[in-house]
Amino acid sequence: MPGSRKLGRASDHRMAMLRGLVTYLLENGRIETTVTRAKEVRSMAEKMITIAKEPTLTAKRRVLAFVTKEDVVKKLFDEIAPEYRDRNGGYTRIIRTGQRRGDAAEMCILELVKEDEKAKKPGAKSAGRTGRFGRASRAKKTEETPAAAAPAEEEAEAVETTVEAVEAVEAAPAEPEEATAEE
Asked: Could you read off the pLDDT of 114-135 as tens digits, one per residue?
């Protein structure tokens, strides 16, 4: 349940930390933090984006009550929220990066999802989901479609042409180097 993690802080300190992290995320588009903090920040940031999708005075006042910088609120209403106008939730993603040196806390990058990433290029093959330890899931693998095979054939032809050009250059007789006079 969002908002139930104490994060080892008193409630006022915890709220100030979350407000700062949400403000920084909306300002810069990504932050690096621990996984538990990221899960809390994700919940709060998505609420702020959802509120900002409706550009009313009440919505601006609600966001200003939480976000600590006025220019970030302006950016949220003018740039960020319109990007997600047709999207219902899922505005952020958490990418785990491993453990932090020193205390081995699980670290991650929390970033705003770009709308152009949602609509992938046609014919592009997705990397697929990986499990917790980086292994591919055991889900049934899909075969390539003919539309995806056509660009692969063009790429293979380009590679063959490049290989032939390199072989031609290597097969050409080497030009004799100019003799330098040691006089």
From this structure: 876 655 544 445 555 566 666 5
